[in-house]
Amino acid sequence: MRSAGESSDVLVVGGGLIGLVTAWRSAQRGLSTTLADPEPGGGAARVAAGMLAAVTELHHGEQTLLALNLASARRYPAFVAELEEASGRTTGFRTCGTLSVALDSDDRAQLRELHALQRRSGLDSEWLSGRECRRLEPMLAPGVRGGLRVDGDHQVDPRRLAPALVTACERAGVRFRRARVQRLRVAGGRAAGAVLADGTELPAGQVVLAGGSLSGRLEGLPEAVVPPVRPVKGQVLRLTVPSAYAPFLSRTVRAVVRGSQVYLVPRVDGELVVGATTEELGWDTTVTAGGVYELLRDAHALVPGITELPLTETRAGLRPASPDNAPLLGPTALPGLHLATGHHRNGVLLTPVTGDVMAHVLTTGELPEAGRPFAPQRFAPAPSGNGRRPSPADTAPATQEQPA
What we know:
Blueprint: E1 2-3, E2 8-13, H1 17-28, E3 33-36, H2 44-47, E4 51-52, H3 63-87, E5 98-102, H4 105-120, E6 126-129, H5 130-136, E7 146-150, E8 154-155, H6 158-172, E9 175-177, E10 181-187, E11 190-196, E12 200-209, E13 230-240, E14 252-257, E15 260-266, E16 271-275, H7 289-302, E17 311-321, E18 328-331, E19 337-341, H8 351-364
Parallel strand pairs: 1-12, 2-3, 2-12, 3-9, 5-14, 12-19
Antiparallel strand pairs: 4-8, 5-7, 6-7, 10-11, 11-12, 13-16, 13-17, 14-15, 15-16, 18-19
Helix pairs in contact: 1-6, 1-8, 3-6, 3-8
């Protein structure tokens, strides 16, 4: 073992969006902060579409999560302005709104149910006829039966957001260790840092585990604090809209097509993101012909002109999902160890509020009110027959790309 030198107040393990924003906010609070990751800014930023969909992503039974999503959505304009000034980089933040549509009577009925849930939850969404939907987005298929206009659901480009956070961290004094963390370091009954794969020790007063779906595979975690996160695969396509086709779509368009969800997210630079599958296939990140076909089939049913666009990229990644699909934020049963993981499909949306919650915890030792429903200890350990709770580490590969 060899020490990397002076101990940090905070060590963040994981350099995705969640880890980066935690490190940035911690450094801003005056805490000496180190972030360890082989490739900071990778993972989720490569795959995620960047929808800020607090309203259109609402699901039955997730009203508690809705409050956190809305709190983070409200923070986004100020968060982006601060980040872009601090980093000198753009983030691709667009206040373009979202249109959710349906193509047949069954899908229309499902969308009507979502609208009713949104209204009961006090959310702002407007029901449109098919004709009104096509007036907003002329590229939509003639068969669109109706839709929901949500002007408050925006977008950001994670591939721009991540580099901006890296630069902001560097300028705020965060020290980067571009290496893989092998195990947690425990001393005196508390988390005391980590050990890199090459044996280098990174001592720290507090450790934040922000490794996405891989958080549970870190060696040295006591079984009582292994985060109960599982990987959920998502395949995403990227196309390019030639200038001759512009404007193709003016806002994010989501749809229910034969019971399946599909979304199209247009960027200002002409990129069009199409996603995403939801597959419970463990650690597999293979891009499959079936996944690409289903996305293109449903996107074509929604916007027939999409088949004329060049297909420039296919990619698959893993969302970190908890048992209730809500994040795990804050202290664990092991003193000094905190979690910031399990954000599932809301990692990009929850970036601002996660940074604020974690910085508050790290400086005061207590969860703020917004984070209390998402404390890691809401999941009691469930020992297996051999006295050890199974964790994602049991089946995880040595390395894996991981969306937030």
